[in-house]
Design a protein that fits this description.
- The complex is a heterodimer of chains A (344) and B (289).
- Chain A contains 15 helices and two strands.
- Chain A is mainly alpha-helical.
- Chain A has one domain.
- A two-stranded antiparallel sheet of chain A has the order 1-2.
- Chain B has a domain of 202 residues.
- Chain B is built from eleven helices and two strands; from the N terminus they run ααααββααααααα.
- Classes of the chains: A mainly alpha (344), B mainly alpha (289).
- At the A-B interface, α6, α12 and α14 of A face α4, α9 and α11 of B.
Chain lengths: 344, 289
């Protein structure tokens, strides 16, 4: 059955459609940003690259989680699994084979994507909290497995020679590429027909199914794409750390970070994870010596945001900017609304 | 019944009673408010730490210390529900879930700051002594945990089914608006439900601190065990929670007896996923979803 196409400006580009100026300028902005980020090794100290790497990978992971948890409305608690599988695929292949890096990294994204598709087909039949709880169960079950699996070194994990990993600035460049690619891909996905169907499922799964959206398929595809990105991030993290073990590679903290960043910044917006990640990484850096306090402050902010800005910081900032702009506008044009304009 | 099997059954049932006690707070909170409390593990661990501190200060028996610890934890939980979580409930699933998530992070960090990351436990004589039950030796603390857990589940059932508070709790769970129109203070009942859940969690925390140990992050694995139990029990049923706890206890003990304790967590968490898939309404649930 074909899905009736809703015309709202986000539709697929028709044959005669030209690039709108806004799209064009957005693309130029993205390219300029990518160039500025890529040039960073030239002007940043080595430590800056490490922070930049942390920021970029946080953005990519949160964008990926937000696709499923925000746009898709499926509150996944499985995402630490994909970081771990991505990291372990990279480390295992580097230790046990002499493959070159590109196929190793590629496989580290594809394996989590496949696992997400397989588990998604099973657990995404469940709805709301039942899916969340099942996804947490899957993540912790795999971690429990990895802690005991001799092939990957059980609790002691795996280490590969540092010469197998690229240097700091190459890793940083890979993180730039991955983050820009993921963000652009997710924007494209949520603005496509697929994205509309995904959000329709979030808003009302039965109604979406009623008009012919194959909800399971859509949900699983989004989960798999999300896992692909997170797995690639996991691969980069393994390359940066050289030595990995199951407690940190599969740590639930990864999932916590993705959720906290997405919720702080704004669920269901692509700008949200960027804002959230900048906020979280900044706090982390400011309180670098006091890690516990930084977590405490971030968690308190999470609760404040949920209570006061339920849609997140980015939508909050935007409406604030709107209010200011409107007030400014009104001052500039006093004739309008001098006698209590009715349009709010 | 061969002696080894009998041993597994006795251990399983006793551990199961403790698991039911660990989970009962989740059942109450989900049953009444449809709220998944991701900070439930931290209530348990918080109860354990509070008990460790008060035993250190007062030199009381840990179970006597519960007279202080349980009301204290309940008093912390009440305002959180009343003024933080209640206003979020109408916003749907995500907001209250994320709020409890934030609370769990805050609690974990406070535990780390106050008690460091090292495992802590309650030192008492019966943590190490054994006792013979039907010819099978069990650790005394498991006997206390199992029987005490079972007794508290029965007490909770009586509280919910046969007291005025229980009546208003059931009414608020069934239909909050109708309950409000007949004069039940629903926000107050909700807050009392979390407070009750916290008090029960503190008892579980003390038993866990005696039988095992706690670290700032142990809450997560207890939370997941709790989920497994209540999913088995049908999410909202008190007797289902007891049965689910005993089933998980039996499952863990038989796995430990058959292939060693290494894969216990794996089996339990897989059981959670399998049960969710086969019977999302739980083994004992009446089809609530």
């Amino acid at each position: 059955m074909r899905v009736p196409f809703v015309e709202n400006g986000y539709g697929k580009p028709g044959p005669g459609r030209v690039l709108r100026p806004r799209t064009l300028s957005a693309m130029l902005a993205v390219l300029a940003l990518a160039a500025a980020l890529l040039a960073a090794p030239g002007y940043l100290p080595p430590y800056g690259l490490v922070v930049g790497f942390a920021l970029l990978t946080s953005i990519a992971m949160a964008e990926a989680w937000n696709l499923v948890g925000g746009f898709g409305g499926q509150f996944s608690m499985a995402h630490s699994l994909f970081v771990g599988v991505g990291s372990y695929t990279t480390a295992t292949l580097l230790v046990r084979t002499d493959w070159p890096l590109p196929p190793v990294v590629a496989l580290s994204g594809l394996l989590p994507a496949t696992m997400a598709a397989a588990t998604g087909l099973v657990i995404m039949r469940l709805r709301s909290v039942y899916f969340s709880v099942a996804s947490l169960g899957v993540a912790l079950a795999v971690q429990a497995w990895m802690i005991n699996w001799q092939y990957t070194g059980a609790t002691s994990g795996l280490s590969f020679p540092g010469s197998d990993a690229p240097d700091e600035s190459t890793l940083y460049a890979m993180a730039v590429g991955l983050t820009v690619f993921s963000t652009v891909a997710i924007v494209a996905v949520v603005r496509s027909r697929f994205g509309l169907m995904l959000m329709a499922i979030r808003d009302d799964e039965d109604a979406a199914a009623g008009v012919g959206v194959r909800s399971l398929r859509i949900k699983v595809l989004s989960f798999s794409l999300s896992a692909l990105i997170v797995g690639l991030v996991g691969s980069l993290i393994a390359l940066q750390q050289i030595s990995i073990e199951p407690y940190s590679a599969f740590s639930f903290d990864w999932t916590i970070n993705m959720i906290v960043i997405s919720v702080l910044g704004g669920l269901s917006t692509w700008q949200g994870p960027i804002v959230g990640a900048i906020f979280v990484v900044t706090i982390d850096q400011l309180l670098e010596q006091y890690q516990a306090f930084s977590t405490l402050i971030i968690a308190l902010c999470l609760i404040l945001v949920i209570r006061l800005l339920p849609r997140g910081m980015w939508p909050g900032l935007r409406s604030l900017a709107n209010v200011i702009w409107r007030r400014f506008h009104r001052m500039a044009v006093p004739a309008e609304g001098s006698h209590g304009s009715t349009d709010a | 019944m061969p002696a080894a099997t009998l041993g597994v059954v006795i251990d399983g049932v006793l551990v199961g009673g403790l698991y039911a006690l660990v989970s009962i707070g989740l059942t109450l909170v989900f049953g009444v408010m449809r709220l998944v409390n991701l900070a439930h593990g931290e209530l348990i661990v918080g109860g354990a730490y509070l008990a460790i501190v008060s035993v250190g200060l007062l030199h009381w028996n840990p179970f006597l210390a519960l007279l202080v610890v349980a009301p204290l934890l309940a008093a912390i939980a009440y305002p959180l529900q009343r003024w933080l979580l209640n206003p979020l409930l109408p916003a749907g699933l995500e907001a209250p879930l994320v709020a409890t998530f934030g609370l769990s992070l805050i609690a974990q960090t406070l535990f780390l700051l106050l008690f460091s990351g090292n495992p802590r436990s309650l030192q008492v004589s019966y943590a190490v002594t054994g006792i013979t039950v039907f010819g099978h030796p069990v650790r005394t603390v498991f006997l206390i945990g199992g029987l005490g857990g079972g007794a508290l589940i029965v007490a909770t059932y009586l509280l919910v089914s046969a007291t005025p508070f229980g009546r208003s709790l059931r009414a608020a769970a069934e239909d909050p608006e109708a309950a409000a129109t007949v004069g039940i203070n629903v926000p107050h009942v909700y807050a009392l439900t979390l407070a009750l859940s916290a008090a029960l969690a503190s008892v579980a925390g003390v038993m866990i601190a005696i039988a095992f140990s706690v670290t700032p992050t142990t809450g997560l694995s207890w939370l997941l065990r709790g989920f497994t139990v209540i999913v088995l029990g049908g999410m909202r049923s008190i007797w289902g929670t007891l049965a689910g706890g005993i089933l998980i206890g039996l499952l863990e003990e038989s796995v430990a007896a058959a292939i060693g304790p290494t894969y216990q967590d794996l089996i339990v968490f897989s059981a959670l996923v399998v049960v969710l898939l086969l019977r999302p309404q739980g083994l004992f649930g009446g089809g609530h979803r």
